[in-house]
Specification:
It contains 7 helices and 11 strands. The chain has 232 residues and is an alpha/beta fold. The strands form 2 sheets. The protein has a 6-stranded parallel β-sheet with strand order 6-11-10-7-8-9, sandwiched between helices. Helix 6 crosses helix 7. 28% of the residues are buried.
Amino acid sequence: MRDSNHRVERILILGGTAEARTIARNLAHTQPDAIVITSLAGRLTESPELPGTLHIGGFGGLEGLMDFLRLGKITRVIDATHPFAATISAHAGLACAELEIPLEHVNRPMWRKHPGDRWRWADSMEMAARIASRFRRVFLTIGSQELAPFMRYGGPFYLVRMIEAPKRRLGFRDHRLVLGRGPLVVDEELELMRDFAIDLVVTKASGGSATEAKIAAARKLGIPVLLVKRPA
């Protein structure tokens, strides 16, 4: 019989990342009595199968998130969003501070640089697009939301990787679209870069093991990698 004074934890996990999925599954084993809600941005057609409840879509800004935390009687928030999801992370920090709700932040470690890596850095996507325009055949692995600056430059051939096919034709002069999501395999990344004669890889400095294969493949082929810095 449950103690009447027992407080059921109501945990909100922010993020559709691999880390968020792992946390949700671990909580189902370690805290089976807890109510776990995993929030996804809703950009993908198919949602992962996870224990607990899924919240699909945004919250409506800071005020919307605060309302969600209040009405849901959330007792703990885990921010496991992508390292580039700066807005929701900032909102989570402000909302939890205001409502005095414990907040945990999962900081995905950056890839470790190895001998043979030819890394260059860009402060923004706009800066990365300007640098990439000087190359001939560019592999863009930056997600679907960050392509606009690169479309403004008509010079290179762009190999564009997305998780799902876009609803509209991409606005590149010369490009090829490939679909795929992590975990990636080094041999497949090597084949892809060789087949398209890639001379520059552009990626966010997001880190994580699921997509590190592209970094290893570029190292093996001596291809420079242009990394866009994480937001502060």
